[in-house]
Amino acid sequence: MAIYNPSNDLMRLHSKYKLRSVTSQMARIAFETASKSLNDAERALVAGYLTHSSQTADKHYRMKNREHIVKGCQLLTSLVSVSRYQPRVFEERSSHAAHHAVPSIKEPTISLTRLPSVNDSKTFSKAFETLLQTHPLSLNGKRPEMKKCKAVSKEFQEKLSSQWAKKQFEMRAQHACTYFSRRKPTKEQLESWTSEQGWKNMAADCEKLLQNWAPSGSEDHIMDSKLIQTLVKSQKWRGLHIRECEGKGRGIISTRRFEAGEVLCDYHGPVVTPNRCVCHPEIQTIGRLLNHSEEKANIKPKYFSMEMDGEERDVILFLATRTLLVDEEVLFDHDFYRGALE
After folding, report:
1. Among 113, 170, 244, 312, which one is least packed by beta carbons within 10 Å?
2. For the domain 221-341, what is the CATH superfamily, name and number?
């Protein structure tokens, strides 16, 4: 910690720990008195250390020698335990002290906060297990009241409450990741979904979930996601925009960031016309407009089948092979696509 003004910093230190005030002058007098037992050369080194003005310091030429600086430091250190410096020390050296009683300087006793031990950790673990017996974790449960935590452990009551909330958040996060396993939701979608679950005061938690979201689970089980099933049926894929691409005609541009492994859209059939499909004759299915690139492909197809309107239909999902940035054209290798169908 930087020292800006020794006297003021010392006063603040004494005030913080409720110690008797000791000025730098009092400390200097105490050290000079304790140094009487030293020889002349050693006393001169101590005096050089105790000087408080540049003019006086210039007179102590010995301090210009590094060896003397080290020696002076060692002498001051050795003098710390010489005496507790009784009031008479100051009375002898200061006429002001003759009229005002100066208390002796005592070594301060500072109480430090006890650090947690291994036993504390075991005790807390047992207390938390006890809390779970009377207030088990659940997705929709309410955080235990402080009085319940206090009944289990007065020492760990706040920590018990925080730990319970933390574990519930982890449980909810896992549940959300299962639902949004391969498609990152918007903030509005996530808040709406958590509201449907009956989870209250989730604004801050939703922010955490979105910040830490990443595709999860096996690619072979993507179609188990109810969200993906809904998007395939509705064709309401977000984050993609149809735009004219120079020399290619129409193409697909990303309007948000997509993570590697995230589902962007689908291409399902059979196709009846170049622009429409049987399922959605009124909608331009966006997957049909994806352009080809063998070298710059940033998505890959994955074949699935799902039941739609009582029939089994083919579904080709497109997954990001790397992170896609905003305003980046979405491309895939058509040859790879044909291979996925075979």
Report:
1. 113
2. SET domain (2.170.270.10)
